[in-house]
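Action item from last week, closing it out:
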Amino acid sequence: MNRFERSSAFKGEAKVKYLDGEVQVLTPGDFVRCAVTGRTIPLDDLRYWSVELQEAYADAASSLKRYHETRAHAGEAAE
């Protein structure tokens, strides 16, 4: 593989719609970004996301952190 083949194989960040139990790729790419950490997540390794917030998470800890953040803000708004 030469350098031109490699550059054409790289697609960049994908645009994704997060659904229950699956994702729908709207714009092809190799990865998405974690909404909490900013880390890139290869699409093949994507396991955690929020359908409600339409965002991806690198791991369970990031998902839980965002869950607590959004629930805390929801509680403040209700008061």
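Closing note: Residues 1-7 have pLDDT under 50 and may be disordered.
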